[in-house]
Design goal:
Helix 6 runs antiparallel to helix 9. The chain has one domain: Tetracycline Repressor, domain 2, CATH 1.10.357.10. It is 60% helix and 0% strand. It is mainly α.
Length: 241
């Protein structure tokens, strides 16, 4: 998610892309959907006020395949032909579901940002202890990045380009996440009686650490998101009751 501060900042450097695991159709089918598949997708060539509801399962297959292709080839390097090849359908058939590659990217990023904000809201409502709420929020963010590593790899490595193409809703959700996360940090600092510290700077540091986990933390690895969150929270001096 976006790192925030009251001043301008530089995003965490990403370095070379990590090696990818072999992908297969079977692997795609096992991955959970980002969110409910009830969202409507605009039909190509239709008026902007009209929407249609293609088969949800096929929409999810396309999004999962596209996330993998974009991660491996980059957003600009990946093509809809490659997405279709993974699913055994033609590029023309993909246009029934999405009008172009940018529409696929927009849906992927908007869904990811929407899930992030929803999970952040859940963290804010989960406890009356400000420090516990922050630890829960950190845990949920790390879990989301690990769970949807393909799309977050694109987001972190090609951020400026993909966010410029992502659409207004995704950008607004990105900014909203940063605002709410900073508010959680401010509450946790206040609960500890910390003064003279900019919550935006602290939030930026925590988010940078969370964001970098896309390079090394895997769902089937030896560490869980909760364990990582607890250790980092201790470093920052947050100790939930």
């Amino acid at each position: 998610m976006e790192e925030t501060s009251t001043s301008s900042y530089t995003r965490v450097p990403t370095g070379p892309r990590p090696p990818d695991r072999p992908r297969s159709r079977a692997n795609l089918d096992k991955r959970p959907a980002l969110v409910s598949t009830s969202a409507q997708v605009e039909m190509p060539g239709a008026a902007t006020s009209r929407t249609a509801s293609p088969p949800p399962a096929r929409v999810e297959e396309i999004l999962q395949a596209a996330a993998g292709v974009f991660r491996e080839r980059g957003y600009h390097g990946g093509t809809l032909e490659e997405v279709g090849a993974q699913l055994g359908i033609t590029r023309a058939a993909l246009y029934y579901y999405f009008r172009n590659k940018q529409a696929v990217l927009r849906e992927l990023l908007t869904r990811a940002m929407r899930v992030g904000v929803t999970e952040l809201d859940a963290a804010m409502a989960a406890s009356d202890d400000p420090e516990e709420r922050l630890v829960i929020a950190i845990t949920k963010l790390i879990e989301l990045i690990a769970r949807e590593r393909d799309i977050f790899t694109i987001y972190f490595q090609e951020n400026e380009e993909v966010m410029s193409a992502a659409g207004e809703e995704a950008r607004e959700l990105e900014q909203e996440y940063a605002r709410r996360f900073t508010s959680l940090v401010a509450d946790a600092l206040a609960a500890r009686g910390v003064e003279g510290v900019d919550p935006g700077v602290v939030a930026r540091g925590i988010l940078g650490m969370c964001n970098w986990t896309y390079r090394w933390l895997h769902p089937d690895g030896p560490l869980t998101a909760s364990e990582v969150a607890r250790q980092w929270s201790a470093v920052f001096g947050f100790h939930p009751r």
